[in-house]
Design brief:
Helix content: 25-40%
Protein name: Ubiquitin-like protease family profile domain-containing protein
Radius of gyration: 26 Å
Largest sheet: 6 strands, mixed
CATH architecture of the largest domain: 3-Layer(aba) Sandwich
Structural class: alpha/beta
CATH class of the largest domain: Alpha Beta
Number of helices: 13
InterPro entries: Papain-like_cys_pep_sf
Length: 383
Protein backbone atom coordinates (compact mmCIF):
# COMPACT_ATOMS: atom_id res chain seq x y z
CA UNK A 1 0.00 0.00 0.00
CA UNK A 2 1.52 3.31 -1.05
CA UNK A 3 1.90 6.06 1.50
CA UNK A 4 0.75 9.38 0.14
CA UNK A 5 1.45 11.90 2.86
CA UNK A 6 2.10 12.22 6.55
CA UNK A 7 0.34 14.82 8.65
CA UNK A 8 0.19 15.31 12.39
CA UNK A 9 -3.17 15.24 14.21
CA UNK A 10 -2.58 18.84 15.28
CA UNK A 11 -2.50 19.87 11.62
CA UNK A 12 -5.62 17.91 10.81
CA UNK A 13 -4.32 14.61 9.54
CA UNK A 14 -2.36 11.41 9.97
CA UNK A 15 -0.56 8.88 7.76
CA UNK A 16 -2.78 8.54 4.71
CA UNK A 17 -2.86 5.66 2.27
CA UNK A 18 -4.48 4.78 -1.03
CA UNK A 19 -7.59 2.61 -0.91
CA UNK A 20 -10.31 1.13 -3.07
CA UNK A 21 -12.89 3.44 -1.53
CA UNK A 22 -12.95 6.94 -2.93
CA UNK A 23 -12.27 9.39 -0.13
CA UNK A 24 -11.84 12.98 -1.23
CA UNK A 25 -10.31 15.26 1.39
CA UNK A 26 -8.46 18.54 1.71
CA UNK A 27 -6.34 17.84 4.79
CA UNK A 28 -9.11 19.02 7.09
CA UNK A 29 -11.39 16.90 9.20
CA UNK A 30 -14.35 16.12 7.01
CA UNK A 31 -16.83 17.76 9.38
CA UNK A 32 -14.94 21.08 9.27
CA UNK A 33 -16.05 22.73 6.03
CA UNK A 34 -13.75 21.21 3.39
CA UNK A 35 -13.04 23.66 0.59
CA UNK A 36 -12.08 21.49 -2.37
CA UNK A 37 -13.18 18.19 -3.86
CA UNK A 38 -10.35 17.86 -6.37
CA UNK A 39 -7.25 16.39 -4.70
CA UNK A 40 -4.01 14.78 -5.79
CA UNK A 41 -4.79 11.46 -4.10
CA UNK A 42 -7.69 9.27 -3.16
CA UNK A 43 -7.17 8.92 0.56
CA UNK A 44 -8.04 6.19 2.96
CA UNK A 45 -10.06 6.60 6.12
CA UNK A 46 -7.45 7.44 8.75
CA UNK A 47 -7.27 6.68 12.42
CA UNK A 48 -7.74 10.31 13.41
CA UNK A 49 -11.12 10.21 11.68
CA UNK A 50 -11.94 7.07 13.66
CA UNK A 51 -11.21 8.96 16.89
CA UNK A 52 -13.36 11.89 15.78
CA UNK A 53 -16.20 9.62 14.70
CA UNK A 54 -16.15 7.66 17.94
CA UNK A 55 -16.15 10.87 19.94
CA UNK A 56 -19.18 12.16 18.02
CA UNK A 57 -21.08 8.89 18.46
CA UNK A 58 -20.43 8.89 22.21
CA UNK A 59 -21.23 12.58 22.74
CA UNK A 60 -24.83 11.75 23.59
CA UNK A 61 -27.78 9.59 22.65
CA UNK A 62 -29.48 12.43 20.78
CA UNK A 63 -26.52 14.15 19.16
CA UNK A 64 -26.25 14.91 15.44
CA UNK A 65 -23.33 13.03 13.85
CA UNK A 66 -20.35 14.67 12.18
CA UNK A 67 -18.92 13.44 8.90
CA UNK A 68 -16.29 11.19 10.45
CA UNK A 69 -18.95 9.35 12.46
CA UNK A 70 -20.78 8.56 9.22
CA UNK A 71 -17.76 7.86 7.01
CA UNK A 72 -15.77 5.46 9.18
CA UNK A 73 -18.46 2.83 9.90
CA UNK A 74 -19.63 2.95 6.28
CA UNK A 75 -16.05 2.44 5.10
CA UNK A 76 -15.71 -0.49 7.51
CA UNK A 77 -18.82 -2.17 6.08
CA UNK A 78 -17.64 -1.40 2.56
CA UNK A 79 -14.33 -3.18 3.16
CA UNK A 80 -16.24 -6.24 4.38
CA UNK A 81 -17.85 -6.77 0.97
CA UNK A 82 -16.30 -9.09 -1.65
CA UNK A 83 -13.65 -7.41 -3.85
CA UNK A 84 -15.88 -7.82 -6.89
CA UNK A 85 -18.68 -5.92 -5.14
CA UNK A 86 -16.28 -3.13 -4.21
CA UNK A 87 -15.46 -2.84 -7.90
CA UNK A 88 -19.16 -2.27 -8.57
CA UNK A 89 -19.73 0.32 -5.83
CA UNK A 90 -18.06 3.71 -5.69
CA UNK A 91 -18.12 4.99 -2.10
CA UNK A 92 -17.63 8.73 -1.70
CA UNK A 93 -17.07 10.27 1.70
CA UNK A 94 -18.85 13.24 3.23
CA UNK A 95 -16.11 15.73 2.34
CA UNK A 96 -16.65 15.21 -1.39
CA UNK A 97 -19.63 17.55 -1.64
CA UNK A 98 -17.53 20.60 -0.59
CA UNK A 99 -20.65 22.33 0.67
CA UNK A 100 -22.33 22.08 -2.72
CA UNK A 101 -25.54 20.64 -1.31
CA UNK A 102 -25.92 23.02 1.62
CA UNK A 103 -29.57 24.03 1.56
CA UNK A 104 -28.95 27.59 2.75
CA UNK A 105 -30.18 29.51 -0.27
CA UNK A 106 -29.02 32.94 -1.42
CA UNK A 107 -26.17 34.06 -3.61
CA UNK A 108 -23.54 32.37 -1.45
CA UNK A 109 -24.87 28.97 -2.41
CA UNK A 110 -24.85 29.84 -6.10
CA UNK A 111 -21.31 31.14 -5.78
CA UNK A 112 -20.25 27.94 -4.06
CA UNK A 113 -21.81 25.84 -6.81
CA UNK A 114 -19.89 27.82 -9.44
CA UNK A 115 -16.67 27.34 -7.49
CA UNK A 116 -17.16 23.58 -7.35
CA UNK A 117 -18.03 23.44 -11.03
CA UNK A 118 -14.86 25.37 -11.88
CA UNK A 119 -12.89 22.85 -9.85
CA UNK A 120 -14.44 20.00 -11.82
CA UNK A 121 -13.66 21.72 -15.11
CA UNK A 122 -10.06 22.44 -14.13
CA UNK A 123 -7.08 21.13 -16.06
CA UNK A 124 -5.00 19.89 -13.13
CA UNK A 125 -5.88 16.32 -14.00
CA UNK A 126 -6.23 16.50 -17.74
CA UNK A 127 -9.55 18.30 -17.63
CA UNK A 128 -11.06 15.81 -15.20
CA UNK A 129 -11.24 15.24 -11.47
CA UNK A 130 -10.89 12.29 -9.15
CA UNK A 131 -14.55 12.67 -8.26
CA UNK A 132 -15.78 12.34 -11.84
CA UNK A 133 -13.31 9.60 -12.66
CA UNK A 134 -14.48 7.55 -9.71
CA UNK A 135 -18.13 7.95 -10.70
CA UNK A 136 -17.45 6.94 -14.31
CA UNK A 137 -15.46 3.88 -13.21
CA UNK A 138 -18.24 2.18 -11.24
CA UNK A 139 -21.77 1.00 -11.92
CA UNK A 140 -23.04 2.29 -8.56
CA UNK A 141 -22.11 5.36 -6.55
CA UNK A 142 -23.07 6.06 -2.94
CA UNK A 143 -22.60 9.63 -1.80
CA UNK A 144 -23.65 10.96 1.64
CA UNK A 145 -24.08 14.73 1.55
CA UNK A 146 -24.92 17.42 4.09
CA UNK A 147 -27.75 19.74 3.11
CA UNK A 148 -27.37 21.84 6.25
CA UNK A 149 -27.24 19.88 9.53
CA UNK A 150 -29.11 17.09 7.79
CA UNK A 151 -27.61 14.06 6.04
CA UNK A 152 -28.96 12.78 2.73
CA UNK A 153 -27.65 9.84 0.67
CA UNK A 154 -27.36 9.80 -3.14
CA UNK A 155 -27.30 6.40 -4.86
CA UNK A 156 -26.58 6.48 -8.59
CA UNK A 157 -26.99 3.62 -11.04
CA UNK A 158 -24.70 4.32 -13.99
CA UNK A 159 -24.74 2.88 -17.52
CA UNK A 160 -22.36 2.83 -20.47
CA UNK A 161 -23.58 4.51 -23.65
CA UNK A 162 -22.37 4.60 -27.25
CA UNK A 163 -19.82 1.85 -26.81
CA UNK A 164 -18.07 3.77 -24.05
CA UNK A 165 -15.92 1.84 -21.60
CA UNK A 166 -16.89 4.27 -18.86
CA UNK A 167 -20.19 4.69 -17.05
CA UNK A 168 -21.13 8.07 -18.47
CA UNK A 169 -24.91 8.01 -18.06
CA UNK A 170 -27.03 8.18 -14.89
CA UNK A 171 -29.85 5.76 -15.62
CA UNK A 172 -31.41 5.84 -12.16
CA UNK A 173 -30.92 7.89 -9.04
CA UNK A 174 -32.19 7.53 -5.50
CA UNK A 175 -32.10 10.41 -3.02
CA UNK A 176 -32.64 9.05 0.48
CA UNK A 177 -34.04 11.83 2.63
CA UNK A 178 -35.30 10.58 5.97
CA UNK A 179 -37.36 13.77 6.32
CA UNK A 180 -39.26 12.83 3.14
CA UNK A 181 -39.08 16.45 2.01
CA UNK A 182 -39.75 16.85 -1.75
CA UNK A 183 -38.12 20.29 -1.76
CA UNK A 184 -34.85 18.86 -0.45
CA UNK A 185 -34.96 16.00 -2.95
CA UNK A 186 -35.53 18.39 -5.86
CA UNK A 187 -32.81 20.73 -4.67
CA UNK A 188 -30.24 17.93 -4.35
CA UNK A 189 -31.14 16.52 -7.76
CA UNK A 190 -30.67 19.91 -9.43
CA UNK A 191 -27.27 20.33 -7.79
CA UNK A 192 -26.24 16.84 -8.81
CA UNK A 193 -27.12 17.51 -12.44
CA UNK A 194 -25.17 20.78 -12.37
CA UNK A 195 -22.01 19.10 -11.13
CA UNK A 196 -22.04 15.91 -13.19
CA UNK A 197 -23.15 17.59 -16.42
CA UNK A 198 -20.02 19.75 -16.19
CA UNK A 199 -18.03 16.52 -16.41
CA UNK A 200 -19.85 15.19 -19.46
CA UNK A 201 -22.15 12.80 -17.60
CA UNK A 202 -25.68 12.63 -19.00
CA UNK A 203 -28.93 11.87 -17.22
CA UNK A 204 -32.01 9.87 -18.10
CA UNK A 205 -35.29 11.71 -18.41
CA UNK A 206 -36.73 12.82 -15.11
CA UNK A 207 -39.73 10.40 -14.95
CA UNK A 208 -37.42 7.39 -15.35
CA UNK A 209 -34.48 8.91 -13.50
CA UNK A 210 -35.63 9.48 -9.94
CA UNK A 211 -36.65 6.36 -8.03
CA UNK A 212 -38.39 6.25 -4.69
CA UNK A 213 -36.70 3.98 -2.14
CA UNK A 214 -38.82 4.16 0.99
CA UNK A 215 -37.03 4.55 4.32
CA UNK A 216 -38.57 4.88 7.79
CA UNK A 217 -39.45 8.56 8.33
CA UNK A 218 -37.39 10.53 10.81
CA UNK A 219 -39.31 11.92 13.77
CA UNK A 220 -36.49 13.85 15.44
CA UNK A 221 -33.76 16.32 14.56
CA UNK A 222 -30.65 14.19 15.10
CA UNK A 223 -30.95 10.61 13.78
CA UNK A 224 -30.43 11.35 10.06
CA UNK A 225 -26.79 10.20 10.14
CA UNK A 226 -27.71 6.93 11.83
CA UNK A 227 -30.45 6.30 9.29
CA UNK A 228 -28.20 7.12 6.33
CA UNK A 229 -25.58 4.65 7.57
CA UNK A 230 -28.25 1.96 7.96
CA UNK A 231 -29.52 2.62 4.42
CA UNK A 232 -26.05 2.48 2.85
CA UNK A 233 -25.19 -0.68 4.76
CA UNK A 234 -28.41 -2.34 3.61
CA UNK A 235 -27.81 -1.32 -0.01
CA UNK A 236 -24.30 -2.81 0.01
CA UNK A 237 -25.73 -6.05 1.38
CA UNK A 238 -28.29 -6.13 -1.43
CA UNK A 239 -25.62 -5.68 -4.10
CA UNK A 240 -23.58 -8.45 -2.47
CA UNK A 241 -26.54 -10.83 -2.45
CA UNK A 242 -27.14 -10.15 -6.15
CA UNK A 243 -23.48 -10.73 -6.96
CA UNK A 244 -23.45 -14.05 -5.09
CA UNK A 245 -26.52 -15.03 -7.13
CA UNK A 246 -24.61 -14.27 -10.34
CA UNK A 247 -26.29 -10.93 -11.05
CA UNK A 248 -25.26 -7.29 -10.88
CA UNK A 249 -28.62 -5.54 -11.13
CA UNK A 250 -32.27 -6.15 -10.32
CA UNK A 251 -35.15 -3.86 -9.54
CA UNK A 252 -35.19 -5.47 -6.08
CA UNK A 253 -32.30 -3.17 -5.17
CA UNK A 254 -34.81 -0.35 -4.80
CA UNK A 255 -37.29 -2.17 -2.59
CA UNK A 256 -38.34 -0.40 0.63
CA UNK A 257 -35.83 -0.40 3.44
CA UNK A 258 -36.63 -2.37 6.62
CA UNK A 259 -39.34 -0.52 8.52
CA UNK A 260 -37.92 -1.24 11.97
CA UNK A 261 -35.21 1.19 13.02
CA UNK A 262 -33.73 1.42 16.52
CA UNK A 263 -31.48 4.46 16.74
CA UNK A 264 -29.56 3.47 19.87
CA UNK A 265 -28.74 0.03 18.47
CA UNK A 266 -27.38 1.56 15.26
CA UNK A 267 -25.38 4.14 17.23
CA UNK A 268 -23.76 1.39 19.32
CA UNK A 269 -22.93 -0.59 16.18
CA UNK A 270 -21.31 2.45 14.55
CA UNK A 271 -19.31 3.25 17.70
CA UNK A 272 -17.99 -0.29 17.77
CA UNK A 273 -16.95 -0.09 14.12
CA UNK A 274 -15.15 3.23 14.72
CA UNK A 275 -13.21 1.65 17.57
CA UNK A 276 -12.38 -1.40 15.46
CA UNK A 277 -11.29 0.78 12.54
CA UNK A 278 -9.01 2.75 14.84
CA UNK A 279 -7.32 -0.44 16.02
CA UNK A 280 -6.99 -1.63 12.43
CA UNK A 281 -5.49 1.65 11.22
CA UNK A 282 -2.99 1.56 14.08
CA UNK A 283 -1.92 -1.87 12.77
CA UNK A 284 -3.32 -3.61 15.85
CA UNK A 285 -0.86 -1.87 18.15
CA UNK A 286 -3.81 -0.69 20.23
CA UNK A 287 -6.76 -2.36 21.86
CA UNK A 288 -10.32 -1.42 22.72
CA UNK A 289 -10.88 -0.47 26.37
CA UNK A 290 -13.73 0.67 28.58
CA UNK A 291 -13.53 3.82 30.67
CA UNK A 292 -15.87 4.46 33.57
CA UNK A 293 -16.93 8.09 33.65
CA UNK A 294 -17.08 9.82 37.03
CA UNK A 295 -20.44 11.40 37.75
CA UNK A 296 -22.26 12.64 40.80
CA UNK A 297 -25.37 11.20 39.22
CA UNK A 298 -24.04 7.64 39.11
CA UNK A 299 -26.55 5.68 41.13
CA UNK A 300 -28.12 2.34 41.87
CA UNK A 301 -31.32 1.57 43.71
CA UNK A 302 -30.94 2.99 47.18
CA UNK A 303 -27.42 4.30 46.50
CA UNK A 304 -26.97 7.86 45.30
CA UNK A 305 -24.42 10.06 46.98
CA UNK A 306 -21.98 12.68 45.83
CA UNK A 307 -19.16 10.49 47.11
CA UNK A 308 -20.26 7.58 44.94
CA UNK A 309 -17.77 8.58 42.26
CA UNK A 310 -15.00 7.72 44.74
CA UNK A 311 -16.08 4.11 44.63
CA UNK A 312 -17.00 3.99 40.95
CA UNK A 313 -14.07 6.04 39.68
CA UNK A 314 -12.32 4.94 36.54
CA UNK A 315 -9.03 5.49 38.32
CA UNK A 316 -9.85 2.62 40.65
CA UNK A 317 -9.51 0.28 37.68
CA UNK A 318 -6.18 1.67 36.52
CA UNK A 319 -3.46 -1.02 36.81
CA UNK A 320 -0.46 -0.32 38.99
CA UNK A 321 2.73 0.28 37.00
CA UNK A 322 6.08 -1.14 38.02
CA UNK A 323 4.63 -3.51 40.60
CA UNK A 324 7.11 -6.22 41.54
CA UNK A 325 6.14 -9.85 41.75
CA UNK A 326 6.39 -9.78 45.54
CA UNK A 327 4.19 -6.72 45.74
CA UNK A 328 1.76 -8.43 43.46
CA UNK A 329 1.61 -11.36 45.86
CA UNK A 330 0.78 -9.00 48.73
CA UNK A 331 -1.92 -7.26 46.69
CA UNK A 332 -3.86 -10.37 45.82
CA UNK A 333 -7.40 -10.00 47.01
CA UNK A 334 -9.10 -12.43 49.28
CA UNK A 335 -9.51 -13.05 52.93
CA UNK A 336 -6.00 -11.87 53.74
CA UNK A 337 -6.24 -8.40 52.21
CA UNK A 338 -9.78 -7.69 53.30
CA UNK A 339 -9.06 -8.79 56.86
CA UNK A 340 -6.61 -5.90 57.07
CA UNK A 341 -9.25 -3.37 56.07
CA UNK A 342 -10.85 -1.51 58.92
CA UNK A 343 -14.59 -1.73 59.08
CA UNK A 344 -14.83 2.06 59.03
CA UNK A 345 -13.33 2.03 55.56
CA UNK A 346 -16.05 -0.20 54.12
CA UNK A 347 -19.09 1.43 52.62
CA UNK A 348 -22.34 0.34 54.33
CA UNK A 349 -23.76 -0.84 51.01
CA UNK A 350 -20.78 -3.11 50.38
CA UNK A 351 -20.05 -6.48 51.89
CA UNK A 352 -16.89 -8.55 51.95
CA UNK A 353 -17.21 -11.67 49.86
CA UNK A 354 -14.60 -13.98 51.37
CA UNK A 355 -15.48 -16.78 48.99
CA UNK A 356 -14.59 -14.76 45.87
CA UNK A 357 -10.86 -13.94 46.04
CA UNK A 358 -10.89 -13.03 42.36
CA UNK A 359 -13.03 -9.94 42.92
CA UNK A 360 -10.05 -7.60 42.98
CA UNK A 361 -7.36 -8.27 40.41
CA UNK A 362 -6.05 -4.76 39.83
CA UNK A 363 -5.91 -1.55 41.80
CA UNK A 364 -3.71 0.83 43.74
CA UNK A 365 -0.92 0.01 46.23
CA UNK A 366 -2.13 -1.48 49.51
CA UNK A 367 -1.88 1.64 51.64
CA UNK A 368 -3.83 3.76 49.13
CA UNK A 369 -6.39 1.07 48.41
CA UNK A 370 -7.19 0.34 52.04
CA UNK A 371 -7.57 4.01 52.93
CA UNK A 372 -9.62 5.19 49.99
CA UNK A 373 -11.12 2.29 48.04
CA UNK A 374 -12.56 -1.12 48.65
CA UNK A 375 -13.62 -3.81 46.18
CA UNK A 376 -17.24 -3.33 45.22
CA UNK A 377 -19.59 -6.28 45.72
CA UNK A 378 -23.17 -5.07 45.42
CA UNK A 379 -25.81 -6.41 47.80
CA UNK A 380 -28.86 -7.87 46.12
CA UNK A 381 -31.07 -5.16 47.61
CA UNK A 382 -28.83 -2.51 46.04
CA UNK A 383 -28.91 -3.91 42.50
Amino acid sequence: MTQVETLSPEKGGCPLHASSAVVVSDRTHRHRKPSSIDQEAILRIKYWDAFLGLDSLQAGHTEWLNGSALDVPTEFRYLQQPPEVRQLINLLDTSADAGLFRHSGGTSLEHNADKVRQSLEGTNHGGDSKLLKSIRAHEFTMWPVDVGMHWVVLILHMQQTGGSKEFDHVAQAVIIDTDHDPLTVGFVLDRLKTVLAAGGISFARTPELLLNMWVPPQDDGWSCGLRCYAAMSEFMQRVTRLYLAGKTYEDSLWEPMPSWFLAQSVREEMAGLCAAMCVRELKYKARIAIELVDSEHTSRKGYKKKSSSKYLSATALKPQRGTSRKQGQDRKIGVRTMSRAKSSHIHPHHKVNKTAPHRRSIGQPDNIWLKKRVPIVWDEDVL
